[in-house]
Specification:
Blueprint lengths: L1 H28 L14 E4 L10 H10 L3 E5 L1 H35 L2 E5 L5 E5 L4
Antiparallel strand pairs: 1-2, 3-4
């Protein structure tokens, strides 16, 4: 009888883990919570001072490069990092969902009786329960 109680506990625990993972993904997709910031990549930018002033003197070119005000972002860091963090969150929650499924399946294996039929049809039928 103890393995059945343990089986039901494992089923409940597995279902709770699966529900929490599903709820976390739902919260992230509805923007009620943010995924964990795993990726923090810089944006893609170009220095326009290399393109401007090819006919200028070397002193003026050096002065333009010192200003660093001609740096332009082509792709902002948010555009790069947000999808990567979202994909990482989905993959991690998929792993957690799989763990919950395995725990619940282990519980089902403990609760379900093992039926073994020996001999001819209808002759001998026994029901075995696994021993812990």
């Amino acid at each position: 009888m103890g393995e059945k109680v343990l089986g039901y506990i494992l089923i409940a625990l597995g279902v709770i883990v699966m529900l929490l993972a599903t709820f976390s993904v739902y919260q992230v997709f509805t923007n009620k919570s943010q995924p964990v910031n795993i990726f923090n990549l810089p944006g893609i930018s170009i220095d326009m001072s290399d393109l401007v002033g090819s006919d200028l003197s070397p002193e003026e070119i050096a002065q333009l490069r010192e200003q660093k005000s001609l740096k332009t972002d082509l792709i902002s860091p948010e555009i790069i990092n947000k999808p990567l963090n979202l994909i990482a969150h989905i993959l991690f929650m998929g792993f957690i969902l799989n763990v919950g499924f395995k725990v619940a399946a282990l519980g089902v294996g403990l609760v379900r009786p093992i039926n073994v039929k020996l001999g001819k049809v209808g002759e001998v039928s026994t029901t075995l329960t696994p021993k812990a």
